[in-house]
């Protein structure tokens, strides 16, 4: 069975070179990294939230997340600089392609009333971000581990300079955009 990276090398690069009139294969857009980010504001009151979500994100991504901390203090939120307020995982290489395949083929079809991901998630520089409302769409996560549904966002960072090329790359990789 052909992996997503092999498909990218053998089929997607020539397609992108033809479509955008690129002469050098190294200049074709590519997926450079996937960042999974989870904000946990409730970690200020319950310290166990970070541990539970760390375990869940480790199972989902196959990599241990790093803790993100507050940059400055905000007194109205009872937040001090340096308090843990989130988690993030940066995936590259084989893990990135494995996660992309799992996300597109297993997790997205489990979303209720799924009609495709919106095209409005591009940032103008060729990166695409999608927000998920719950972590339970990933099949490897057991319900006994989930104490509360929490949302997170996934950012697909590409080397494409614009949204058109990045959109075509992600569509060729298998991202199901809405019509």
Automatic annotation (TrEMBL):
Residue ranges of every copy of the Large ribosomal subunit protein uL5 C-terminal domain listed in the record: 84-177
SUPFAM superfamilies reported in the protein's UniProt record: RL5-like
One Pfam family here: Ribosomal_L5
Domain of life of the native organism: Bacteria
A single cellular component GO annotation: ribonucleoprotein complex
GO molecular function, a single term: rRNA binding
Stretches assigned to the Large ribosomal subunit protein uL5 N-terminal domain: 24-80
NCBIfam families in the record: PRK00010.1 (NF000585)
Protein family: Belongs to the universal ribosomal protein uL5 family.
Assembly, per entry: Part of the 50S ribosomal subunit; part of the 5S rRNA/L5/L18/L25 subcomplex. Contacts the 5S rRNA and the P site tRNA. Forms a bridge to the 30S subunit in the 70S ribosome.
Role description: This is 1 of the proteins that bind and probably mediate the attachment of the 5S RNA into the large ribosomal subunit, where it forms part of the central protuberance. In the 70S ribosome it contacts protein S13 of the 30S subunit (bridge B1b), connecting the 2 subunits; this bridge is implicated in subunit movement. Contacts the P site tRNA; the 5S rRNA and some of its associated proteins might help stabilize positioning of ribosome-bound tRNAs.
PANTHER family noted in UniProt: 60S RIBOSOMAL PROTEIN L11-RELATED
Record-given protein name: Large ribosomal subunit protein uL5
Organism annotation: Candidatus Gottesmanbacteria bacterium RIFCSPLOWO2_01_FULL_49_10
Organism placement in taxonomy: Bacteria, Candidatus Gottesmaniibacteriota
């Amino acid at each position: 069975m052909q992996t997503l990276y092999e498909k990218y090398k053998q089929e997607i690069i020539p397609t992108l070179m033809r479509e955008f009139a690129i002469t050098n294969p190294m200049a074709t857009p590519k997926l450079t990294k996937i960042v999974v980010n989870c904000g946990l504001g409730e970690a200020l009151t319950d310290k166990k939230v970070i541990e539970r979500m760390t375990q869940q994100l480790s199972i989902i991504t196959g990599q241990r997340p790093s803790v993100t901390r507050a940059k400055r203090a905000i007194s109205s939120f009872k937040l001090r600089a340096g308090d843990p307020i989130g988690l993030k995982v940066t995936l590259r290489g084989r893990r990135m392609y494995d996660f992309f395949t799992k996300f597109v083929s297993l997790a997205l079809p489990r979303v209720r009333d799924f009609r495709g991901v919106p095209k409005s998630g591009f940032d103008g520089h060729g990166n695409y971000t999608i927000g998920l409302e719950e972590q339970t769409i990933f099949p490897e996560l057991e319900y006994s581990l989930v104490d509360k549904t929490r949302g997170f966002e996934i950012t697909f960072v590409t080397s494409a300079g614009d949204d058109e090329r990045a959109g075509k790359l992600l569509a060729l990789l298998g991202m199901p955009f809405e019509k």
